[in-house]
């Protein structure tokens, strides 16, 4: 037993509305974690095997560029999820992730969740829809961040 109650998981925005029997099964693959500011959840290029449902705090998704400081592409807060790369091969992190303030989360074992999805197609479908929603939002947020970073500086009215 993981020590994570199904009712606590059910309160997380990512899992809200999931049938109780599914939340109970997912709870078996979950662990409650606390991370101090500065904690690295994962590194770009590393092997992806889990994901986190953020309960409190904020986590920065970052990208390392040679000769430059890490580029923050998105900041993830309570109610969201970090770590999508565990879902499909090659199961390699596309970004890094670091807590930018003390953060609590549910850590879920990706292999265990995939096994649950394989054994219960209804659960698999429900989680797939939720994961696809998150995956669809990420490029949009990254594009907005990149546009802000690389936009031409604005000139003030009345200056030449």
Question: Which keywords apply here?
Answer:
160 residues, alpha+beta, Jelly Rolls, 4 helices, 4-stranded antiparallel sheet
Helices and strands in order:
Elements: H1 6-10, H2 20-27, E1 30-35, E2 40-42, E3 50-56, E4 58-63, E5 71-77, E6 81-82, E7 96-99, E8 103-109, H3 110-119, H4 121-150
Antiparallel strand pairs: 1-8, 2-7, 3-6, 3-8, 4-5, 4-7
Helix pairs in contact: 3-4
What does this entry show, briefly?
Helix content is about 35%, strand content about 25%. It is built from four helices and eight strands, in the order ααββββββββαα.
Characterise the protein shown here:
It contains four helices and eight strands. It is of the alpha+beta class. The protein has a single domain, classed as Jelly Rolls (Sandwich), CATH 2.60.120.10. The strands form two sheets. It has a four-stranded antiparallel β-sheet. A four-stranded antiparallel β-sheet has the order 2-7-4-5. Helix 3 (about 110-120) packs across helix 4 (about 120-150). The termini are far apart. The mean pLDDT is about 90.
């Amino acid at each position: 037993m993981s020590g994570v109650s199904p009712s606590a998981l059910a309160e997380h925005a990512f899992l809200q509305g999931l049938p109780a029997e599914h939340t109970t099964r997912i709870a078996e693959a979950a662990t409650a974690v606390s991370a101090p500011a500065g904690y690295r959840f994962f590194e770009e290029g590393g092997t992806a095997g889990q994901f986190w449902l953020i309960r409190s705090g904020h986590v920065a998704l970052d990208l390392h560029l040679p000769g430059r400081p890490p580029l923050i592409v998105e900041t993830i807060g309570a109610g969201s999820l970090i770590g999508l790369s565990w879902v499909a091969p090659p199961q390699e992190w596309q970004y890094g992730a670091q807590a930018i303030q003390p953060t609590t989360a549910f850590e879920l074992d990706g292999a265990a969740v995939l096994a649950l999805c394989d054994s219960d197609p209804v659960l698999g479908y429900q989680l797939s829809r939720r994961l696809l929603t998150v995956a669809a939002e990420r490029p949009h947020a990254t594009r907005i961040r990149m546009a802000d970073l690389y936009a031409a500086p604005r000139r003030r009215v009345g200056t030449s």
